[in-house]
């Protein structure tokens, strides 16, 4: 069942979204050559906790870290590690969820570590653009499939592949609520969007193939051929006009 948020709940969602976005911005500033993903995870979690929030990923289905940090061929759910040191030319997807006063904000950006390859630049551009193509379709009266299709079309116009196995989702008091928000599909299909819905739109894009593998740690999702993957995400609210992006550092 899709939870429709009332104005008070939307205000709470906005505050959680701001915290998640600030924490993501901090991750980006600290993502430089020589830092470990463990250290990044600690910096982000300290920020969220010192602002009255918590990190709901910790312990979710047994997930061992506070948030997800995925490097290069890792698409999502990378587990922070002291042995994973960032180096020039890497790309890192920081997927940050913050809970504040019972509501969640969920957002992701892929950051460059120094100078990266032209291919990495192009993949990041395609994925971020696809996120905004999806957000453009996140208006009352449209259906979820309109978001999905816009993302898929944009990604495939670059020759890249949208991942099928993991998808976006409703978000609110719970990290994962209805509806499902796939990054592929047909326009005009799926649940109708109505004001007060809050959803996480999150294109996950591989350079070559849509398929993914899960590593022996049972979490880290990687491309099957070791090529780069990329992930951008915002939590948005459906309104009477354009979607309101909740995961911005300030409004
Ligand atoms: N942030 C992810 C999402 O967009 C969820 C992370 S899975 C977890 O849905 F295990 F880390 F919580
Ligand atoms: Co999400």
Q: What is the structure about, briefly put?
A:
The chain is an alpha+beta fold.
Which properties best describe this structure?
Creatine Amidinohydrolase; 14 strands; three-stranded antiparallel sheet; alpha+beta; 28% helix; binds 2-amino-4-trifluoromethylsulfanyl-butyric acid; binds cobalt (II) ion; 251 residues
Can you identify the CATH superfamily?
Creatinase/methionine aminopeptidase superfamily
Termini Cα gap: 29 Å
Largest sheet entry = 5 strands, antiparallel
Order of helices and strands: HHEEEEHHEEEEEEEEEE
Relative helix content? 25-40%
Tally of distinct domains: 1
Mean pLDDT: 98
The class by helix and strand makeup works out as alpha+beta
Instruction: Estimate what percentage of residues fall within beta strands.
Output: 15-25%
CATH fold name: Creatine Amidinohydrolase
> What is the top-level CATH class?
Alpha Beta
Side by side, the strands of the main sheet go: 7-6-8-13-14
Task: Tell me what the CATH architecture is.
Answer: Alpha-Beta Complex
Cofactors, ions and other ligands in the entry: 2-amino-4-trifluoromethylsulfanyl-butyric acid, cobalt (II) ion
Number of strands: 14
């Amino acid at each position: 069942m899709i939870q429709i948020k009332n104005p008070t709940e939307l205000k709470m969602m906005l505050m959680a979204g701001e915290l998640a976005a600030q924490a993501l911005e901090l991750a980006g500033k600290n993502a430089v050559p020589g830092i470990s993903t463990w250290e990044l995870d600690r910096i982000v979690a300290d920020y969220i906790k010192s602002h009255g929030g918590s990190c709901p990923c910790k312990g979710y289905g047994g997930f061992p870290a506070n948030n997800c940090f995925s490097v290069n061929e890792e698409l999502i759910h990378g587990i922070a590690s002291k042995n994973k040191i960032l180096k020039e030319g890497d790309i890192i997807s920081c997927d940050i969820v913050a809970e504040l006063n019972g509501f969640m904000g969920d957002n992701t950006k892929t950051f460059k570590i120094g100078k990266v390859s032209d291919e990495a630049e192009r993949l990041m551009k395609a994925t971020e653009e696809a996120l905004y193509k999806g957000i453009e379709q996140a208006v009352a009266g449209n259906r979820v499939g309109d978001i999905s299709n816009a993302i898929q079309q944009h990604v495939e116009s670059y020759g890249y592949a949208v991942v099928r196995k993991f998808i976006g989702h409703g978000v609110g008091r719970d990290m994962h609520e209805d509806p499902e928000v796939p990054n592929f599909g047909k326009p005009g299909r799926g649940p109708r969007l109505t004001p007060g819905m809050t959803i996480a739109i999150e294109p996950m894009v591989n350079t070559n193939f849509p398929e993914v593998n899960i590593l022996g740690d049972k979490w880290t999702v990687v491309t099957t051929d070791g090529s780069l993957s990329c992930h951008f995400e915002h939590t948005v609210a459906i309104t009477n006009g354009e979607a309101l992006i909740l995961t911005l550092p300030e409004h």
